[in-house]
Design brief:
By secondary structure, the protein is of the alpha/beta class. It has 6 helices and 12 strands. Helix 1 runs antiparallel to helix 2 and helix 2 packs across helix 3.
């Protein structure tokens, strides 16, 4: 798997990541969502450089312009609910893409330190021969990303796969690297080194879904 870690080069993205992590600023849920969305836009822009392009003529009021435009059938798939702002950011740039949504959550069987990933809802178009962009803001253990992809397999085999995340843990990056093909791309804003005993990224930013949409009842 090819990993594109945008934090390896300084940019305005650093500001958005800092604000999402900041315990005071992140209390503003609207700003938190917008920062994830803006991060999605930046990740989408960087991802766009790896797409296929074809020459195209555009008629202007004064003549004809020759340009190279993207030539990919894109499907954006986001993991609910935390993935919604990230999905919106990507959709701002890939506005002609088809869309898929899937719910995946941690189910703790016996104790808070062990869990399995449960997939309950899935809406997806045909993926055969298309460019799949699979988005999840937090790449912690990597199990949600892998479980989601397994659930998508009945819908066809994509031509190319791009994974998009805001913050990941090294352990999660290593995990998905083992479960996706070598030509898969991971586009990620930054990578932290640790997971705690509950499988959350440290220093991370907390629960992205709760920060974006409010705390949820446990079941």
């Amino acid at each position: 798997m090819q990993v594109h870690n945008l934090s390896e080069q300084n940019s305005i993205l650093n500001t958005f990541i800092s604000e999402m992590r900041n315990i005071k600023i992140q209390k503003d849920s609207m700003r938190f969502r917008r920062n994830i969305e803006r991060t999605g836009e930046i990740l989408g822009y960087e991802l766009s450089k790896s797409l296929d392009y074809k020459s195209s003529e555009t008629i202007t009021p004064l003549g004809t312009a020759n340009e190279k435009l993207p030539n990919n059938d894109i499907v954006l798939c986001s993991i609910l609910r935390a993935g919604v702002p990230l999905h919106n950011g990507l959709l701002n740039y890939f506005d002609n893409a088809e869309n898929a949504f899937i719910s995946a959550y941690r189910h703790h069987k016996h104790n808070p330190e062990s869990f399995e990933i449960i997939v309950e809802y899935l809406a997806c178009p045909n993926l055969e021969g298309k460019t799949l962009i699979l988005a999840d803001p937090m790449l912690a253990t990597g199990q949600s990303m892998v479980a989601t992809f397994e659930a998508l397999k009945p819908f066809g085999t994509p031509k190319t796969i791009h994974l998009v995340s805001v913050i990941g843990a090294k352990e999660g990056v290593d995990y998905v690297s083992k479960h996706f093909t070598e030509d898969t791309h991971l586009w990620i804003a930054t990578i932290d080194q640790m997971l705690n005993e509950k499988g959350y990224i440290v220093p991370g930013l907390g629960d992205a879904g709760d920060l974006a949409f409010g705390e949820k009842l446990q079941h």
